[in-house]
Design a protein that fits this description.
14 strands; 501 residues
Length: 501
């Protein structure tokens, strides 16, 4: 087991993540710490970091290094971004950190920072084409990608902190300052001719995560997840105009908005609001990825840090890191999709639903990392809350409820996800259709011995005859699968008969 730490000195905050990496490269985030330092605000006359800003940054990094030592971290990667990059005395900070901690800090160029954000993003989402916006305190990085390949990239040397200070937006803004701020953004974005070439805007960074938390509280959204949430452009506009009418004290009371970002939020939302308009995107996706993810993947796969398949990687990573019974999960998933394919005339579903069933089959026992008692409840929770990347919220919720229903229906709080979340009423019918297939497939590997090699479903009027093949005795699997016949018949209107071939 290897343990690495990544320290990211941003313009607004300094962050530390610690990641465990097993011998098979399966990895797991075990620490995520942040201190608000506002290095960008520590830039004084002549573009110099102030002594106070340097002292605060050095003290924070030293604290993080000591924490890494206590947590037995073997390797530390430290980088600095816009605030340090833009300072004429950046070397003073870098030298002091090295002298007092022994850690060498790499000051990233704007291009490097954008590239690392792009790596982190495309390794975390299944969208293959889009416009990434990485908004920091001192810069805005924009990357357009097609087929997951970087096509356009630009770094704008302004961010939420710098524009907040320039246009005096920390407290309740003056309408004239807001108009000047928006005019500056519109002029800046109009110079980027390729912005409107990409169909989806995907945001990373603290401001986007803050927006997601405020939005979730504003509409009582479930699940309580930032990664993968889609926010309508109209909601971004509404929140921007609402928060820009509030004083700083009033903003500090806004549900979901952390105190340290209350002064920045109007500036940050204004940048997002005008960027959406310039890119002509109807909505915004928020990703929890960051340059720290880019740094990690570049460390893990130095020759080619771009994952071949995002969903497969993160699924396999969960299975391998938690030492789940991979052979059993693969057999169940193969049996489930075989059933799905052979029963297509019965259910009439397509490839998207097939993928949901496949993912649920692979994750149907993830809850054992908590306990085998109340496994359904723990499976729902772990699928929803694990660092499992690559699914939109609707897909993740559907997979979670399917996985939790591998031995029987599990519908706890499902109505909340229809009323306040990404599901629609028809999704309940979809879960009901797919769950019996997973239940039968799970039963067909009940002994975990792989005694069932394949199966054949024959549809007759009012009857589904399921023939189970194998080279060993399989009475346990056949009888266990047969107990799901009533649920199958209730859903599909045909009798299910399971018998050894």
């Amino acid at each position: 087991m290897e343990r690495i730490g990544i320290i990211d000195m941003g313009s607004n905050s300094i962050r530390l993540v610690i990641i465990d990496v097993k011998e098979n490269r399966a990895h797991h985030l075990i620490e995520n710490l942040k201190r608000t330092v506002r290095l960008r605000s520590g830039v004084g006359q002549g573009g110099l970091l102030t002594e106070q800003g340097i002292n605060d940054a050095v003290d924070t990094v030293a604290l993080f290094v000591k924490f890494c030592q206590a947590r037995r971290v073997k390797h530390i990667i430290a980088v600095a971004t816009a605030a340090v990059r833009q300072a004429a005395n950046a070397h003073v900070l870098v030298d002091r950190i090295f002298k007092e901690t022994g850690v060498q800090t790499r000051v990233l160029s704007g291009e490097e920072e954008a590239y690392l954000g792009y790596i982190g993003l495309v390794n975390s989402i299944t969208e293959t084409t889009g416009l990434m916006a990485d908004l920091g305190g001192g810069s805005l990085k924009l990357v357009g990608f097609v087929d997951r390949l970087n096509r356009h990239s630009v770094t704008l040397e302004f961010g939420a902190v710098s524009l907040m200070e320039k246009y005096n937006l920390a407290d309740k803004p003056n309408p004239e300052d807001l108009r000047a701020f928006e005019a500056f953004l519109d002029e800046s974005f109009s110079q980027i001719t390729w912005l409107a070439d990409y169909p989806k805007l995907i945001g990373i960074g603290g401001t986007f995560r803050s927006l997601a938390r405020v939005y979730r509280n504003h509409v009582q959204y479930v699940p309580d997840l930032t990664d993968g949430i889609t926010i309508p452009g109209s909601a971004v506009s509404e929140l921007y105009h609402l928060l820009s009418t509030m004083s700083l004290a009033e903003r500090r009371q806004v549900p979901g908005l952390e105190q340290a970002r209350a002064d920045l939020i109007v500036t940050g939302l204004g940048i997002i609001y005008r960027l959406l308009a310039a890119a002509q995107c109807p909505d915004l996706m928020v990703s929890a990825s960051s340059i720290r993810d880019g740094l990690f993947f570049r460390y893990l796969y130095p020759r080619d840090p771009i994952l071949f398949n995002v969903l497969t990687h993160h699924t396999n990573n969960l299975i391998e890191y938690h030492n789940l019974d991979e052979n059993h999960l693969r057999r169940v998933s193969n049996l489930a999709v075989t059933l799905f394919d052979q029963l297509q005339p019965l259910h009439g579903l397509g490839s998207a639903e097939r993928r949901l069933l496949l993912m649920a089959s692979l994750l149907h026992e993830l809850g054992v990392v908590v306990s085998v008692e109340s496994l359904e409840k723990h499976t729902l929770y772990t699928v929803l809350n694990s660092r499992f990347l690559g699914l939109a919220h609707r897909e993740r919720v559907l997979v979670a409820y399917l996985a939790a229903s591998h031995d029987g229906p599990f519908r706890a709080n499902l109505a909340d996800y229809i009323k306040h979340g990404p599901l629609v009423p028809e999704d309940l019918e979809l879960i009901n259709k797919l769950a019996p297939l997973l239940q039968v497939a799970h039963s067909l590997d009940r002994s975990r011995a792989g005694v069932v090699t394949h199966l054949k479903a024959e549809l007759k009027p009012g009857l589904c005859e399921l023939k189970v093949f194998g080279t060993q005795k399989r009475d346990l699997e056949v009888s266990d699968a047969a107990r799901h016949a009533p649920a199958f018949e209730q859903e599909y209107g045909v009798k299910l008969v399971v018998l050894p071939a």
